[in-house]
Write a structure and sequence with these properties.
The protein is mostly helical and 259 residues long.
Amino acid sequence: AVLSRRDRGGLAQLDLAASIAAWTCFHFGVSKCFARLLGHAKNVAGFAPWAAWTSLVNGLVVQPLLLALAVRNFHRVDERRESWQSVDAFLRMSWHDGSITWPLEQALCCTLGYVLREFRIARSASLYPDGLELPYALHHLICAVGAAHNFFAPVGAGLLAVNGIQCEVTSALFSLREEFPNPATLLVYRTTMAASGLLGFYLTHVFWHYPASLSFRLAYVALVVLLGGIRTGGLVVDLQAHGLWPSAAQLRPKGAKRA
């Protein structure tokens, strides 16, 4: 198991801890700035507007930039450029490829920092929409466990990081839809969230064939299924609210009684 771009040891673990702490402070700072500008009223689909804008910064700015930096670093040392073999090599990288995977490592630390910030805020204030505290808390707990779990992957650092980043991007598009509700953002959210779920399961299928231990692969599959189930459930609830997906009552045969 590889904990970071460096060899295993106390220094590597301290390095990761420092990065996670730095990203947590970063997200706290962004949240504070937006809270001062936009206030604390939960008027964006049950969220405070500062929470939505913090999500936009994380998912549409920071995470894509870190992925772009990793791709740039990879192409500097890979001669195949745009070929499929180059994509496969990028996805299969291990954390030992430090100069290349450092931005991906930071993307995972950024995710952990974002989630830790949310847990800290949720302790002192009602951060999530009323009645949805448990699903959101569970969703973010799985994200945190998944991000930490990925640091122990012996191979597939690129794939695991890409899978996490694309989830963060689509989560930000949910915030975009709530902050700017119109048909265009609604369509973008629905199509990208559905595509994100399919992409997540496809990348998990690809990772299953990588030379990682069976226990690691099973744990990763379980995390993806749990997270994918929660995200898909949220999408279905949204579609039901707009009459685009049949509810349980509508699916029940006429005349049938509830158990």
